[in-house]
Amino acid sequence: MTAKEMFEKLGYELINSKKIIYKKYDKNINRIIDIAFFENKKILITQSIDINTLQAINKQIEELGWEEKEIVEEDKDIEELTLRGKSIGYGLKRSDD
After folding, report:
1. Which long-range contacts (CB under 8 A, 24 or more apart) does 3-10 make?
2. Is the pLDDT of residue 14 over 90?
3. Is 16 exposed, middle or buried (0-12, 13-18, 19+ CB in 10 A)?
4. Is 24 a domain residue?
């Protein structure tokens, strides 16, 4: 299954295929969720997401050819995310403020 198919199964619509931007209205939180992939290997996510959406994001990263290790090495504000000891992706480091 492609990333696009995964996103569509979760209710997202690909609104820009050149910049790769997905959009979905989440009635549970009464908000629109946008997920955008940028050429500089940055991702914008406008709301909290579930594990299935994270898996679709990771699939899109794989299809774009972005190396996870390379992304982490380039951006020191990113850390590996784990669930029950298994790697599930990467996210922003929490500040100790």
Report:
1. 3/56, 3/57, 3/59, 3/60, 3/62, 3/63, 6/52, 6/55, 6/56, 6/59, 7/35, 7/53, 7/56, 7/60, 10/52, 10/53, 10/56
2. yes
3. exposed
4. yes
By the 8 A CB rule, do 12 and 22 touch? Answer: yes
Q: Position 20: which residue type?
A: I
Q: Does residue 96 carry a pLDDT above 60?
A: no
Residue 65 has φ and ψ, to the nearest 5°, of: 80, 15
Domain membership of residue 14 as a residue range: 3-92
pLDDT in tens, 25-80: 999 889 999 999 998 888 999 988 999 999 999 999 999 998 755 545 555 566 66
Q: Is residue 97 part of a domain?
A: no
The average confidence (pLDDT) of the chain is 83
